[in-house]
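Feature request disguised as a bug: please show the residue count (468) next to Lysyl-tRNA synthetase in the output. Example input:
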Amino acid sequence: MFLFPYVDIVCLHNIMSTLKELRDVRLEKLEKLRELGINPYPAKSFRNTENIAVTERFEELHGKEITVAGRAIAVRAHGKLAFIDIKDDTGKVQLYIKEQNLQNPDYKYSEVGFEDLHLLDAGDFVEGTGVVTKTQRGEVSIEVTKLRLLTKTLRPLPDKWDGLKDRETRMRRRYLDTTINEDVYQRFIRRSKFWEAHREFFKERGFLEMNIPVLESVPGGADANPFVTHMEAIDQDFYLRISQELYLKRLIGGGYQKVFEIGPRFRNEGLSDEHLPEHMAMEFYWAYADWEEGMRFIKDLFDYVVNKVYGRIQFTIRGFEVDFSKDWEVIDFAEIMKKHYGFDVYNVGVEEIKKILKENNIKTDYDVNIQRGVDLMWKKIRVTVGGPAFLVNHPKYISPLSKSKVENPDITERFQPIIAGSELGNGWSEINDPIDQLERFREQQALRDQGDYEAQWLDIDYGGCNSP
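Example output, currently without the count:
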């Protein structure tokens, strides 16, 4: 059984009529349809052919009767002829309607007669049964002998020519954005293929996809401010996870060697093109591998995904020419900070940090510490990096979950892939010394106690010690 949703599309234009007036007209049409005995919201469609097949398989289907369905995006009448363009998720096709072909409709099955076409509007969902043909102008069409109404919409689509331009409305009503803007519609298809490619890549390499909690009593795994919620059953506050990290790493401790999860994360912080309070993310953990193996793995992952989703390896992104066939640049954290700001990132005090921020016009709305100050400086550099590149040799004080290098404990075995000015990941060798991890957590908790609400929480259970 097919169920057709109630469609409540927002009208964003104002051409002679108000939204209420336009809706009232459609309500009148709805009532007239009901008076005819037409069910404007049937539960079943008899579609047997996708729209794209009509054009791609025209020679095969020419002269044969098929049934198609979709949203009407244009309704045109010319005397004893009418044309309805309908769109499904594969594309658009034209319904070619002759007056003599739509006589004596069976209203019981939501069929519409030629004289009833004025009750249809762009935005309605309809079904057409007829023979595949070409019009006199050579357009592939369905010469309809039966037209059914599947869903009568009550609000018009945005103006055909002006489109949908208001960014706020587009972000809040994605269903409307995908209906009007084909590029946005295709973007979400690519997004689905993007995550599908990740799953293929990991499973081919022996990783297990796991499900882990979204509600946590102690959030961790990232520098972020969490959302707080309350569980009534036990009268206790919980936090929406800011990362999948600590629970996936618990699974490594539980004996699994290769695990990953794709799912939502929540961070109660700023809004931008790179930061959404709720977003999808992937994290994986791999026992017996270090950060250098991780970098090679990530490079292979990028190569696999971009080829699978886009079928190419060269892109223009935000003005950067990004070529994944080239060797990835390796950027040393200390060297690039020294080059841009003239200080030793491993040996710096908070007052020097504040001075450098002021000299470089990097403004903050809070009293920065060393960790946040260094991160702000890096972000100003990062937007100039086209990549693909790896940022390496991060200081220990901004890497609370990364293992230190043996030759220099102030530097961690950590990397971040940078593409077109954005950080697209974070990887490192894991800390396997519980005492070291506990001390890192204590340092982070001290920062929280001083007012840094993006610092990590002290997680005794994960830290591996029974008491603080």
